[in-house]
Amino acid sequence: MNNKVNVYIKVSEDGKMPSYGSLNAAGCDLYATKYMEIKPGEIKIMPLNFVMAMDENLEAQIRPRSGLSLKTNLRVPNSPGTIDSDYRDTVGVILENTYDIANLPYDIAKDPNVLKVLKEKYREISLVDYLNSKEDINLDTNNFLSILEQKIYLDQKGNPYGTIYINKGERIAQMVFKEYKRANFIECENPQKIGENRGGGFGHTGVK
Questions:
Q1: Are 74 and 38 in contact (CB under 8 A)?
Q2: Mind listing the domains of the chain with CATH numbers?
Q3: pLDDT tens, 70-126?
Q4: 25-55, pLDDT tens digit by residue?
Q5: How far apart are alpha carbons 99 and 208 in whole angstroms?
């Protein structure tokens, strides 16, 4: 079966050519071009340092890697992200760390070994002390809130528990090429009378 399409690509410094992991893999792997730290709740863009051109009837979809989604809190929030055929700038991947630090007690309840990790690899600090250590933050001590007394845990790099570290060259996402159709919108007085109208709204067909 001939299912290949021509994609013209220029890889710049620190970029890496997308590659397929197996003979029939639908998605090609995309690689981090630099070291990146993503704290819990943060969203960042990883530039892939390549520009490409494809046939006008194609789009490229950026999707998460299943292994990362299963084993980490790293997500591609706009998945599938679309790259249009007429886009000619550097391709990038939007990455989000979805870890919620409020879930730490539940993580400990599920796996008490987390306590050992916190003791050996993290230091406990109050939120107010953490904020006061930041040069760009000036706290109003006259309006001190009790939430500032809560404890957070910082690793050896000074980042909070749950921070995701991405190394240059790591596989961070995958890209799939798909054909698409553009709509020719035609104004109509009563679209409900065209074709079959099943009726109902969201969830009308049930959940089972």
A1: yes
A2: 7-99+164-179 (2.70.40.10), 101-154 (no CATH)
A3: 999 999 999 999 999 999 999 999 999 999 999 999 999 999 999 999 999 999 999
A4: 999 999 999 999 999 999 999 999 999 999 9
A5: 30
Two tokens, residue 159: 């980042």
Q: What are phi and psi of 41, to 5 degrees?
A: 85, -10
What is the tens place of the pLDDT at every residue in 180-200? Answer: 999 999 999 998 888 887 777
Classify strands 171-179 and 58-63 as parallel, antiparallel or unpaired. Answer: antiparallel
pLDDT tens-digit profile of 155-169? 999 999 999 999 999
- Exposed, middle or buried, 47 (CB in 10 Å: 0-12/13-18/19+)? middle
45's CB contacts (< 8 A; 6+ apart) are 92, 93, 94, 95
Distances (CA, A) of 108 to 41, 139, 146, 197: 20, 31, 23, 51
Find out whether 124 and 151 touch, Cβ atoms under 8 Å. yes
Which among 166, 176, 129 has a CA at the least distance from the CA of 148? Answer: 129
Q: Average pLDDT of the chain?
A: 92
Is 32:166 a contact under the CB 8 Å cutoff?
yes
Question: Based on the number of CB atoms within 10 Å of its own CB, is 60 exposed (0-12), middle (13-18) or buried (19 or more)?
Answer: buried
